[in-house]
């Protein structure tokens, strides 16, 4: 009798990428990122309005950043940005598995209540970065701060 294979789900622990030294979570709007990406795959006309107004580093969630870059690549070749084309572009980029596969992409489109709100979703994502500091900038600052503290004190304080 063959035993069922048990898969263990590893809980994600907070890292420096997520939390700074004072326990503050990095600026994020994951629900809006997901709604925006889902809307872009569903509403072709909306993609053109949004894609040049955002930067990949404005996306907090790495999966969403990778998907947005793939959408930019597709859009720049003047091809339609939809579920199939994004899936294929991610496959070509060898990143489909990294973002969670076709399931994650389909989930993004299923979360969309209305593509009519796409500009609002983009504005929320931009507003989080409104001071001109991106999540990448913040991560780099936190890392440099930790390195400087380690050099001067011999250790990085734990919260």
Overview of the molecule:
The protein has 159 residues and is mainly α. It is built from 7 helices and no strands. Helix 1 crosses helix 5 and helix 1 runs antiparallel to helix 6. The longest helix is centred in the last third of the chain and has 19 residues. The N terminus and C terminus are likely disordered.
Radius of gyration: 19 Å
Cα-to-Cα separation, first versus last residue: 49 Å
Give the overall shape, derived from the CA principal axes. globular
| Helix/strand structural class | mainly alpha
Describe the largest sheet. Answer: none
Poorly predicted segments: 1-21, 145-159
List keywords for this structure.
53% helix; disordered C terminus; mainly alpha; 159 residues
Q: What's a quick, concise take on this entry?
A:
The protein has 159 residues and is mainly alpha-helical. It is built from seven helices and no strands.
Layout of SSEs?
Layout: H1 30-42, H2 44-50, H3 62-76, H4 83-92, H5 101-110, H6 118-128, H7 135-153
Helix pairs in contact: 1-2, 1-5, 1-6, 3-4
